[in-house]
């Protein structure tokens, strides 16, 4: 089923993101975790692609297996910064042959060691190629409540988001954020500048210190004082930090839904137990 149809049909949606392994020896354990997450019955599962600008051998396989074994709809990601047009076309063909109706189109981060291919500069070029390849496939794109780190300012960034939508993105999923006020302000600015498609709010439950440091470095998101206090207080108590992180994320989700932001995408970090606890916390709110 097309993700845009799921978003239009259901009042409130909760979906989960998983990531494939980097090396084949980890495939079985990642597959097990991804399937356990899908069995929790989210509206769909997204599967990331080659983080850090690399390509991924496993995204399509893992996406296919999750869909076959659980029946849950899957949104495979596809990046372009390290790919040739030919390679992208092969990926699109493979997705089509396996019956996928959705793809999340991204540029990918520019690899620190430099690019190996110059066919694509921005996600919009990938979106145009996907649309040309298949006019029915549902395309999602990324957006950034704090502004993308490479952007001169938020308005310029939003203008590029609008161009992605005009090129064929049916919905957007946001980068993670820990301050809902930042998201509400961003959503208002998107709407004022004419971006009217559904915007899924990206929520990451923080469950350990390594994740705190990595997440902040990679996303550049602003950490509110309330979140920093929690990290300060529980940084040496892993069980307490995990519990507090899950409750913080749950609280964000409840506030979003209370304010009519009805589509939530949770970055699960391949942890079924975390996804399960969030669902349990929301059992009467999302059903
Ligand atoms: P773009 O839309 O190309 O934007 C990148 C920058 O270029 C922005 O500053 C934008 O304002 C600017 N820009 C856009 N279009 C133009 C234009 N025409 N001219 C000039 N400037 C322009 N990375 C992965 O490697 N794999 C994943 O699976 C993955 N999943 C993600 C999922 C989500 C929900 C999000 C938010 C991010 C994800 N990323 C992933 C990270 C993403 O690849 C990086 O943030 C990357 O730096 C930007 O990708 P993009 O698609 O937003 O790029």
Task: List the defining traits of the structure above.
TIM Barrel; single chain; eight-stranded parallel β-barrel; 47% helix; globular; binds flavin-adenine dinucleotide; 287 residues; alpha/beta
Describe the structure.
It is built from eleven helices and eight strands. With 287 residues, the chain is α/β, with parallel strands linked by helices. It has a single domain (3-281), classed as TIM Barrel, CATH 3.20.20.220. The structure holds flavin-adenine dinucleotide (FAD). Flavin-adenine dinucleotide (FAD) binds at residues 48-51, 77, 79, 106-109, 122-124, 142, 148, 150-151, 157, 160, 164, 173, 175, 202.
The averaged pLDDT comes out at: 95
Order of helices and strands: HEHEHEHEHEHEHEHHHEH
- Rounded to an integer in angstroms, the radius of gyration calculated over CA atoms is 18 Å
Ligands in the model, by name, code or SMILES, are:
flavin-adenine dinucleotide
**What is the CATH architecture assignment?**
Alpha-Beta Barrel
The proportion of strand residues reads: 5-15%
| Count of the separate structural domains | 1
CATH secondary-structure class = Alpha Beta
Major sheet: arrangement of strands: 1-2-3-4-5-6-7-8
Span between termini: 19 Å
How many DSSP E strands? 8
DSSP helical segment count: 11
**What percentage of residues falls in helices of 4 or more residues?**
40-55%
Structural class: alpha/beta
* Main pleated sheet: 8 strands, parallel, barrel
CATH topology: TIM Barrel
Apparent shape: globular
The low-pLDDT segments are none
